[in-house]
Structure formats: C-alpha cells, structure tokens
From TrEMBL:
Gene3D superfamilies: Vaccinia Virus protein VP39
Keywords: Polyamine biosynthesis
InterPro entries recorded: SAM-dependent_MTases_sf (IPR029063)
Keyword Chaperone carried by entry: no
Pfam families per the UniProt record, alphabetical: Spermine_synth
Provenance organism: Alcanivorax borkumensis (strain ATCC 700651 / DSM 11573 / NCIMB 13689 / SK2)
Protein name as annotated: Spermidine synthase
Length: 248
C-alpha cells in the first residue's frame, strides 16, 4: 500500500495508505477506517456497525448519531441506505476528523461533525432522541483493538436515554470476551430493549452488539439485504462478510 498522507501527534503516528482506490487510516499501525469512493462495503467490521439498521425498515431511522467517527467509513452507507434527515457524528481525535473531512471527503455526505469527548457530548445533549446510535469508541493510541470507554451501566443508561422509542443501539467491542466481561452482556442491559444480536466477520475479532427497542429476527436483515440493489448484486454479495446471531 502506498503512503499518501502522514503525521505524528502526541506519540501517535497517523498514516493514510492507498491500495487501488481504497484508502485506509492507521494510527500506530492499527487500522481505524477504510474508504472507497465507489463502494459502500468494506468487507470488514465497518459494515457490521450499520447493518443492524436493516433489522427494521430503513425509513424509520430519521435521526442517526455516530459516536467515534474515525475517518468516516460509516457515513456513505448510512447516507445511501438510510438517508436520514439528521446525521450527526462526534470524534475526539482531531487528526481522525481532519482525515475524514480533507482526505475521505465526508462533508459531501451531509453529516454534522463535532470534535469532542463522546461521553461528555451525549451527557450534555438536550435535543431530540436518535433512532440509531452507533457507538464505536476506540482510542487511537491503542496498539491493540480494545474499547476506550467502559461499557458500564451508567454509560449504557446514557445511550438508552437518548434513543427513541423504536430505536436501535449498536456497540462495538474489541472481541467477544471484552463484551462478556462488560455489563452490556447482562440481563439488566436489556432494560427497555426487546432483542439483542451479535454481528461478526471473518477478518476481525470484534464483537458488534445491536440492541433493538422493538422485536427483530436475523431473517429480517437477510431479507432486506436481498431486496436492496446496492447490497444484493453479485459483487456486493461477494464482498459482504457478516454473521449474525440472536442473543436473546
């Protein structure tokens, strides 16, 4: 992969590398984002973060919040497949936000962005609730894939309190054990939720957990993928790598 952009800040080395038309953002050697100007699918963990929206009708997700934007890999598919009225994102790392805007060009997708601490931002937020919250908080200084924010009961309550009555919450964990060790895996985490799912893919260890206010089944996701042209054509079907399992 060709190095096309780099900087170093606070002992973190940031690089953007190109492979064909694919751009990848790395921090201390760990890949944090991927972008392709003509592809919605990465074939990796970033697809798992927005896929749970298809457990229900996409039209219901009018307000979407992304906590942990990174380089903005999620923004093009959210805009294309959900096209929400409000699309907002919070990112702590200024370099990630710079790459998202200046290298990946996410401003063209109609997203409002803030630089700041996602926990503080959401705890101080006073606006309307969101129909979809994607929580993907990983520190750029980590040399292994692990969460930057504990998935404790207090943080889960904050996320839940800012979710609409029919909303979906998606949380990313470094691996299955990190999820199992958190309070997000317990029964209390299901307060006000009807269903819980794990999504995974073959090229990473992440455990992406989706909580839905209203009952859902994995077959609903598969059926919507099958009738969505951007996801069901042969090239997309070959690239989309996911496994979904209902946990409750």
């Amino acid at each position: 992969m060709a190095l096309i952009w780099e900087t170093e800040q606070d002992e973190v080395r940031y690089e953007v590398r190109r492979a064909g038309q694919t751009l990848r953002l790395f921090a201390n050697g760990v890949q944090h984002s991927e972008f392709h100007p003509k592809r919605l699918l990465t074939g990796s963990v970033w697809d798992l973060l927005w896929l749970p929206a298809l457990l229900h009708e996409p039209a219901r997700f009018r307000r979407v919040l992304v906590l942990g934007l990174g380089g903005g890999s999620l923004i093009p598919p959210i805009r294309k497949l959900l096209n929400p009225d409000v699309l907002m994102a919070v990112e702590l790392d200024g370099v990630h936000l710079q790459v998202a805007r200046e290298v990946f060009g996410i401003d063209a997708f109609g997203v409002e962005t803030w630089q700041g601490d996602a926990q503080q931002w959401l705890r101080e937020y006073q606006g309307e609730p969101f129909d979809l919250i994607i929580e993907d908080l990983f520190a750029p200084s980590n040399e292994q894939v692990s969460r930057a924010v504990p998935a404790d009961a207090g943080w889960q309550a904050c996320l839940r309190n800012n979710l609409s009555e029919h909303g979906t919450l998606v949380m990313n964990f470094g691996d299955w054990q990190e999820y199992r060790d958190s309070s997000a895996s317990g029964r209390r985490a299901m307060k006000s939720f009807a269903s819980r799912f794990r999504l995974s893919c073959s090229d990473c260890h992440n455990a992406v957990i989706a909580f839905t206010r209203e009952p859902a089944r994995s077959i609903h996701l598969r059926r919507r993928i099958a009738v969505t042209p951007a996801l069901s054509h042969a090239k997309a079907a070959a690239r989309l790598d996911y496994h979904i399992r209902q946990l409750d």
